[in-house]
Design a protein that fits this description.
Aspartate Aminotransferase, domain 1; globular; 2 domains; nine-stranded mixed β-sheet; binds pyridoxal-5'-phosphate; 13 helices; Aspartate Aminotransferase, domain 2; about 35% helix; alpha/beta
């Protein structure tokens, strides 16, 4: 195999060029224009909800969601430690502090520990949940559907209702994932909590170069999010602003890409699932490595594949394997550094972090682009087999 096999790259072989060309020809390249509305409408249609608001990035969407969930200066917000840091930074943008939770064996937040934290470490008052240790109010929780694998939303919503927490679903990795059983059967990740946020960054399942979408249970809050994302203009002609807004609106150029990408989303998910199954079949035969499952009772979008390495049995550590694969022109990536250990967050409270410490040294994400050819996936498996010692 002579080609370099990237971890995850965009796939723009649909109508992207046609739609972007139209945008350029009409010169509606900025934050006005038909594709923005069309993209919002099409995403809402796909998710079977009424509306969403398109923004500059998933991070911007998360910032707006947290603000609209009622997070105030000096509050605390419950977040996972095993995730991408963009899920947490917006808490700080609002002058609030994150409290970190562990993961379970699906890599999503450990809901037993979450429940235990709320019950034992906090007190539910008329003013909401108060952290006993700091005396600060916790009004919001961020759940991340890691790698497109849906968290147990029935359990999570029960906990959130009991402890009066608003739920922000960071669904930036999980567009297209939905529940197939139970109370939320047919519901998409991001449409169950109070807010849901999607990302269209370059490595996500569909891309607009950079971009995001915010959805909310309360339609009024979507209108409010749109207002805040466009500099909070109360009068468009005279420039009257009753609040401090943001420049967070998606551009028509980005949205044109998004409309073309969304047309291909189900096809992308199909390819992601096929390649996952191919990897799974081959990798299960190799001693000392395995590929993590996606949860039952969901149709996961299979965005990223997680290889779990048992160094004793396989004969190579995670980082040795990463280097060997690199030598074979196969790009992989270790899972993120834990956020409670990153410089800006070292002094924050972290509740009984155990499993995250285990997984942090043992997970490698392997090539998962939708343009990954079957022969390339097989080649990755061949190399993994050869490297076993
Ligand atoms: C990608 C991602 C984000 C941020 O999305 P951007 O569009 O890049 O700002 C947030 N949270 C998680 C978990 C992500 O993977």
């Amino acid at each position: 195999m002579s080609r370099f096999i990237p971890l995850s790259v965009p796939n723009l072989k649909g109508k992207e060029l046609e739609y972007v060309t139209k945008v350029v020809e009409t010169e509606w390249v900025s934050t006005g224009g038909g594709y923005i509305n069309e993209f919002e409408k099409n995403i809402a249609g796909y998710l079977k909800i009424e509306k969403g608001v398109a923004c500059q990035s998933g991070t911007a969407g998360l910032h707006l969601a947290l603000k609209l969930s009622g997070v105030k200066y000096g509050d605390e917000v419950i977040v996972p430690t095993l995730t991408f840091i963009a899920a947490v930074n917006p808490v700080r943008y609002l002058g609030a502090e994150p409290v970190f939770m562990d993961c379970d064996d699906t890599l999503n937040m450990d809901l037993d520990k979450l429940e235990e934290f709320c019950r034992k470490e906090c007190t539910l008052t008329n003013d909401g949940l108060i952290n006993n240790k700091t005396g600060k109010a916790i009004r919001t929780l961020v759940i991340v559907h890691i790698f497109g694998n849906m968290a147990n939303m029935e359990r999570l919503i029960d906990i959130a209702e009991e402890y009066k927490l608003k739920v922000v679903e960071d669904s930036t990795e999980a567009l297209g994932t939905y529940s197939t059983e139970g109370r939320y059967k047919g519901k998409f990740a991001g449409t169950i909590g109070d807010f849901g946020v999607y990302s269209f960054n370059g490595n996500k399942i569909i891309t607009t170069g950079g971009g995001g979408m915010l959805v909310a249970k309360d339609k009024n809050l979507i209108d409010k999010a749109k207002y805040l994302s466009t500099q909070a203009k109360d009068d468009e002609l005279y420039y009257i602003h009753d609040e401090v807004g943001f420049n967070y609106r998606m551009t028509n150029l980005q949205a044109a890409l998004g409309v073309a990408q969304l047309e291909q989303l189900e096809g992308f998910i199909k390819i992601k699932m096929e390649n996952y199954n191919l990897y799974k079949e081959e990798i299960d035969k190799i001693e000392g490595i395995s590929i993590l499952d996606f949860n039952k009772n969901t149709r996961a979008n299979h965005w990223f594949y997680s290889l779990l390495i048992d160094e004793e049995k396989y004969g190579l550590s995670r980082d040795e394997l990463l280097n060997k694969l690199n030598e074979n022109k196969i790009q992989t990536r270790p899972i993120w550094g834990l956020i409670h250990e990153q410089k800006p967050y070292r002094n924050n409270q972290a509740h009984k972090i155990e499993k995250a410490n285990y997984y942090i040294d043992r997970i490698l994400n392997i090539p998962c682009s939708t343009s990954l050819a079957k022969e390339e996936a097989k080649y990755v498996c061949d190399i993994l087999r050869e490297l076993e010692r």
